[in-house]
Amino acid sequence: MTATIIVLAKAPVAGRVKTRLCPPATPREAADLAAAALLDTLDATAAVPDARTLVAFTGRLTDAARAGALRASLGRARTTVQRGDGLGARIVAAHEDAADRWPGAPTLQLGMDTPQVDAALLSGCLLRLADADAVLGPAPDGGWWALGLRDPRAAAAIGDVPTSRADTGERTLYALRAAGLRVGLLPELTDVDTADDAVAVAADAPGSRFAAAVEQVFAGASR
């Protein structure tokens, strides 16, 4: 069965994304980095065999960095509008939208902060759902970068989990298990929040748009 890869994305508008990169980045440079990360992510999801991409999007694309390239990339995917009060509710709604459109299809959800992902990694994440009800990819900061569900509606279990905390990943794992789900753990990945994160992630994604953008903005930031 064709799986659905959900990308939770926000229009990369200067001053509204990746503000923790400023300084040393300017708001415009931070938005460009976010746009590069999203484009790399969408390239990776599009290359996964037997999977479709659903982008849960919010914001004005007309105001975004790399708007033309993003418009073309989004045009090759399916899209839905983010809805809900708070990140947890928006995550649940995105999975519900996928379940409504493609009943019975498993989901794998990620954001636009891990441009080092590739098709092989994402395919492996989906394969883990063959012997688990859910899979969760931890991040070093205590959060998580990916959530896979055999039944997308099971995302309701994490709707009230506080986000952007050092224990978000732990709480998410507990909530999934408390709902009776068998949970497998995915490889840990760093998501991009700080300048040091950006440099580290770029090193793991040589040749990517993101790595090229980081080279322009953060050359020497790790020294």
UniProtKB/TrEMBL annotation:
InterPro entries, per the entry: Nucleotide-diphossugar_trans, Trfase_1_rSAM/seldom-assoc
Lineage, top-rank taxon, reads Bacteria
What name does this protein carry?
Glycosyltransferase involved in cell wall biogenesis
Identify the species of origin: Pseudonocardia dioxanivorans (strain ATCC 55486 / DSM 44775 / JCM 13855 / CB1190)
